[in-house]
Amino acid sequence: MKKSINMLALYKIASWLLYGVSRPFLEAWSRLEGSEGIWAARLGYVPKHIIDTGPYDIWMQAVSTGEVGVAEAIVKAIDKRTNDIKILISATTPAGIARAMSSLAPRCSVIPYPLDFPQVAQRIAGAIRPRLYACLETELWPNLIRTVQDMGSKTILINGRISAQSLPRYRKIGALIHHLLKDFSGICAISEVNKDRLAAIGAPRERIYVTGNAKFEGMLSRPDRHRVGVIRECLDINESQKVIVAGSLRGGEEKPVIDAYLTLKHSFPGLVLFLVPRHINKVSCIALYLKDKNIKFQLWSKLEMGEGRVCDVILVDLMGPLFDLYGLASAAFVGGSLVPKGGQNIMEPAAWARPVFYGPHTDNFEEARSALEIYGGGREVRCAKDLADAIKPVLDDPQIQYEQGCAAKRALMELSHGAADKQAEILLKLLN
Fold first, then answer.
1. Which superfamily does CATH assign the domain made up of 221-416 to?
2. In angstroms, what CA-CA distances link 386 with 99, 344, 375, 390?
3. Which of 100, 219, 256, 340 is deepest in the core (most CB within 10 A)?
4. Which pTM was predicted?
5. For residue range 311-342, what is the model confidence (pLDDT) as tens digits?
6. Span 2-212+418-431: which CATH code?
């Protein structure tokens, strides 16, 4: 116990000193942005209308779009039970903030997540004073958590998961994590395996509930076939045309994907390929590779502006359209998986009943991968040849595509099984 307290104290002292050094630069940057900018909120300066809307019953902290999807499902489940719960949502990434603003405001107040300095935590926690602070997945920021706990707020971890890849890292800082988790009022784990891992890093086993994964439940209601129909019409892609969507590409994954596409193009001359990088700053690298290969392509942003489609390869250079593009796919490849990045959400194509392909590195989605492979809706590939060989039967035979797509959706339905409802019930129970 003494070691854990010392680690937390050291973290607090170090972050306190770092804020002192960086504060002039950070505050100058926030002044340039203005009082309504992201950096003002990062420093704990909450807009007046956010404070006036409070006090808040629940503050949910998400990281990016995936965790905001979890928040959406849980908020919806809460609203089925009661309509008088005031909720604040914070998100870390610009993409997460944008999604929260579009999907959860004005039902919930939305702010950028503050930096985890003690001075900032005191400032924003004092302004918000939530009755219950909920971290999504593994968003464990010590200064803010301890600050809200010291102010009398309850804390809970929802949709909790620890991947096999990250477990050793958490064990290295086990004393710090144990000291944080021991005072949580509840912890919602997505599976029994994750319950055991959370207990191994210090979570009180008697307060861990296995609820399933709300990230998957929210996806079942997201597909909008009308919107996909509009995209088809705008891009002149008919229902019978073969389409591959390669989403969340990272670490050079576009190269084997493009090589597989060129192989398949010999058998399917009109085959369309969407290349969607995980991070927009990688668009230029992918564009350069396409030019080196003498492959003609168009940018999604130009097509959105009304440019007619004249190429079969489309490079998506904006955030946001990936989920809808999966609805166009005959087959989908989900990136972050051929390289050791832990994978991205391999269940997004499954929500559209599309066959799913991915690399060997899917540590962040172990249960999803297992379910997809048990049902026959997903398959691992390791290189360009593997990917081409796996996708070819799907493109050859619409019946195979249909059967594998339906299997993928059944796997998604099996994993969701009311997870958001279970977690909403636990949140409301803690509030009461």
1. Glycogen Phosphorylase B; (3.40.50.2000)
2. 34, 19, 20, 6
3. 100
4. 0.83
5. 999 999 998 899 999 999 999 999 999 999 99
6. 3.40.50.11720
